[in-house]
Amino acid sequence: MFLVAFSGWVAVSTAQAQGVRSEVVATGLQNPWAVSFLPQGRFLVTERPGRMRVIEADGRLGPPLPGLPAIDVGGQGGLLDVVVDADVAANRRVYFCYSEAAASGGNSTALASAALAADNSRLEDVKVIFSQKPKFASSAHFGCRIVEGSKDGKPDGTLFLTLGDRYSRMQDAQKLDNHHGKVVRINKDGSVPRDNPFVGRAGALPEIWSYGHRNLQGATLAPDGSYWTHEHGPQGGDEINLPQPGRNYGWPVITYGENYGGGKMGEGITAKTGLEQPLHYWVPSIAPSGMAFLSSDKYGKAWQGNLFVGSLKFGYLNRIELNQPFRGKVMREHKLLEGGGRVRDVRQGPDGLLYVLTDSPQGRLLRLQPQ
Ligand SMILES: [Ca+2]
């Protein structure tokens, strides 16, 4: 214990040595993508092949919930994110996104709202409140993380949704007449907030919040209410960004990554006037998925306020220390759960503990217990 008396670095190392114990809450989930939290300790989980289930507090899996819309499952597509309304205990609303097929062919990311029946047995009153335009034939880069916005410390009734560039439509990310490679912001009924940055601009889709993104599979609010995302780079150059209204995050004009097989992307540059720099980038890519700030003190002071990001590629949970205030820099990164498989999602539960989903045909819901 006397080690703690030394520098902050040593204190952090000690906490890491003490580590956490990962406790299996549930198993037998097929490629789970997202976990959200229901009243009475229950969980709401999506599986990419097109199922949503309630998991009981004791880990028992409920049957697939009836009521989902048609989902275009394949490749990276399927049933992806789910979040519950900030007032779910009263209104039972949940929001989920998925790959939606067009009758004419192709697909895109769609966002739906539904009410979870009081007995948790089915989804009711399902409404598709947003569909990414245009539909395009691709099984890649759906983006699809949902976050409810906040103002003055309270949920503000808007939803941020991340949208991928569909891989081969990367040039669209620089244009405002489509939803490829964008963050969009809508109201819960699907209408467009009047204060969105491109409302009223000719030729621009009014749902767009920020653009020049690639494939964003992580998004969250920081404790100060700011909106954070991460996105996959091409080969290297995964990024963390704090998307601001109307700003251009550069893809594919600037990137710290390379073409697959080598060679510089685009103009081969990493910076350009008018294009935003990421807060942080990873070379090589970690293939990030899931993103959460830890606001609770359950794991001690060293972890409070840290950012957690899953790595699909290397199979670990990344604990990220940031300088203060939050709009600063990444100071240190620490690997947790190494060897435990691809990490698809991470969230803080209402109990202040971290929950993780592993991505495999036999995926698991894990709870991290401090020790
Ligand atoms: Ca960028």
UniProtKB/TrEMBL annotation:
Glucose/Sorbosone dehydrogenase domain segment(s): 29-367
InterPro entries listed in its UniProt record: 6-blade_b-propeller_TolB-like, Glc/Sorbosone_DH, Quinoprot_gluc/sorb_DH_b-prop
Record Gene3D superfamilies: TolB, C-terminal domain
Pfam families linked to this entry: GSDH
Protein name: Glucose dehydrogenase
Species per Swiss-Prot/TrEMBL record: Polaromonas eurypsychrophila
